[in-house]
Amino acid sequence: MRTARRRRTGAAVALVSTALLLTAACGSSDDSDGGGGSADAGSCQPAGKPVTLTFTSWVPGMQATVDLWNKNNPDIQVDYKEVVGGNQGTYQAYSNQIKAGKTPDVGMIEFDNLPSFRLQDGLTNVGGCQPVQDAEGKYVDWAISQTSFGEDGAVYGIPMDIGPMAIYYRKDLFDKAGIPVPTTWDEYYDAAKKIKAEGGVIGDFPTDQPAWFTSLAWQNGARWFSVDDDSWTVSLDDDATQQVADYWQKLIDEDLVDTIPGLGDPQWKALDSGQEWSIIGAAWTTKLLESSAPKTAGKWAVAPMPQWTAGDNAAGNWGGSTAVVFKDSKYPYEASEFATWAFSNLDALALNNKNGGQYPATTEGQEQLPALTEGLPYYGDQKVWEVFAQAAAGVDPSFQWGPTMTDTYAALADGIGKAVNGQGTLDDALTAAQAKTIETMKAQSLTVSD
Amino acid sequence: MTALPWTRGHSTRRHHRAAIGFLAPFLVAFALFYVLPIGYAVYQSFLKIEREGTFGRAHDVWGGLSQYAEVVHDSDFWDSLVNVGQFFLVSVPLQLVLALVFALLLDSPVLRAHRFFRLALFAPYAVPGVIAALMWGFLYSPGTTPIPGIADRFDLLGPDLVMVAIASVVNWVYTGYNMLIIYSALTAIPAEVIEAATVDGAGQVRIAWSIKIPHVTPALVLTGVFSIIGTLQLFNEPQIFRTISSAVSSTYTPNMVVYATSSIPNYHLAAAYSVVLALITCALSFVFLKATQRRAFQ
């Protein structure tokens, strides 16, 4: 008797654990056609009555921008909710909300994840909405064109901010050692060797930031994804990317760069202690570096990214996001009116920059925001934003993101992890990520040409 | 009317109604939060996606066993099972031996301040796994550790040792928990038995070996089953370590494979992984119980 009861307890334990597991796998309700109310060109009309919109993002202090809008627009009130970062859970939440038909009207999605939500049919094409057409010209070309997916006149997301890249370097250390700031990748390699001789490291190859590697490939003109005739072409291992991979493999092999996770305490500590002399970062790194490496204030400067061909002005873009109008929104006109205002109006941009550290996606914002025209004490009073405005103009417009970037990044990060641990090379990482991406896309019933 | 004869059938019916009344709240919750989600996941695992064109709307269609075919062929998933298998060997034997030793010490008159030690050993279990992993990760990272000697000498976050590093976090959290299960089994041993042994001249070690350990074997088996389940479901700790170590891949454990797949999002394949993982968990727990019950539950 006792035996039997004990045994049942054991079985029950196993069963309960099974149940816990399975619940974790469950998303939301079955997908219906969700009303199918797409707001394509022509159908984007004002509601003609007061409306309330919902908006979620993870930009710090976005509430202030929303408050300013609400004060001036009594008929279009925005209900704002701050959420966690996209990859920290909000993207998963969006996916579930799209399935359940319960999305906010406006949401934040980074550029690299936009195709994934387009693929889930979660986004409204606001290209036909008057407010978008009025504002379109203000945005940096490549930023707005990234949101069309090659469809004429389509806009699936309104650029919020962008992340043009540059090199942040310890001016004092470079000067003292008599090492010129590298303007090409060859010079970067030479500088790396000299810095190593000085007992330091030029910088980090962040093992957990596949998006960083992606933007370096982007700078070199990589084309990872393209679409023709309803079929995708995937070429993560194209020549441009392989050149970048081989270059960094050489630096890793010769122990000229650190290989620690990026943007976390280990890297900040290495930068603040003078172990690492530079970091290749985006516009948004400016404030992050300032708050994360406070001891070295005043010793930093910013220069354009090293080039593959001397004299070029090619920059990568790392990060940046868009405000999308979700398919379930009943008010695409008002939603796009709010979103274009919030990310192109100068007052709004000033708030976004002050509170959220956003670098604007409009040329007007980049050139005219008072905060973006002054020198920064942390960078020895250098007008660093001029470097980023120049970089923003040099980003290759034809780079396209894939529809399953989460998975592509994961595969890439796994491969990079193996490479820095001596279990393969960065080239192997590209090959593996290429294969995994194609497999995942095929599982999404997408046509991929070989 | 006078009282009817108390018939057997009548009483059974009444009992049934009362039983259903008492059980209803549980059954409703059980159906809603266990049966339904499991059924839904199983159903999802039999579907697949179809769409037309590059960005065409996706439709769920019946896929039969196609997701399961994917699971069978997926090397990441099976590699992750090998990983947790190794993890089990690295972590669990040590954890259970420690738990048993601590429980025996707590139960023996040798140790003073029982209450303090019981609480102190159990306290790590009150720390959420994520926090524990962050704390230990901080200690293990070369950049942040307050004990630089260790991080310099051993690459605790490298491919060779990272599993030991993660196992140490898991052991730190769960040893106290398992200890408590074993300890409560020890306290159930009748005092006369111990007295009799003492009168017979048995020392503490002899009592522990010949009386206490055989007596708590069922509890040890239970902790073993918990450990099998816990190891197969390992997620928080390696997920946190992924942010500080390049040696932990996104598919390090089976649950991480499920998570990575569902964030693509590919719910159908993720559901199939979950079902397979659940079946494997059931099977292993069952085999473990079968193998140990003859010894444990005589």
From TrEMBL, chain A:
Matching Gene3D superfamilies: Periplasmic binding protein-like II
Claim: Membrane is one of the keywords in the record: yes
Signal peptide: 1-24
Matching SUPFAM superfamilies: Periplasmic binding protein-like II (SSF53850)
PROSITE patterns: PROKAR_LIPOPROTEIN
UniProt entry keywords in alphabetical sequence: Cell membrane, Lipoprotein, Membrane, Palmitate, Signal
Record-given protein name: Extracellular solute-binding protein
Organism: Nocardioides mangrovi
From TrEMBL, chain B:
Membrane-spanning residues: 20-43, 87-107, 119-141, 161-183, 216-235, 267-289
Membrane topology: Multi-pass membrane protein
Keyword annotations of the record: Cell membrane, Membrane, Transmembrane, Transmembrane helix, Transport
Chief location bin: membrane
UniProt cross-references to SUPFAM superfamilies, sorted A to Z: MetI-like (SSF161098)
InterPro entries: MetI-like, MetI-like_sf, UgpAE/MalFG_permease
UniProt-annotated location(s): Cell membrane
Residue ranges constituting the ABC transmembrane type-1 domain according to the UniProt record: 81-288
Domain of life: Bacteria
Annotated PROSITE patterns: ABC_TM1
Similarity field: Belongs to the binding-protein-dependent transport system permease family.
Name of the protein in its database record: Sugar ABC transporter permease
Organism of origin: Nocardioides mangrovi
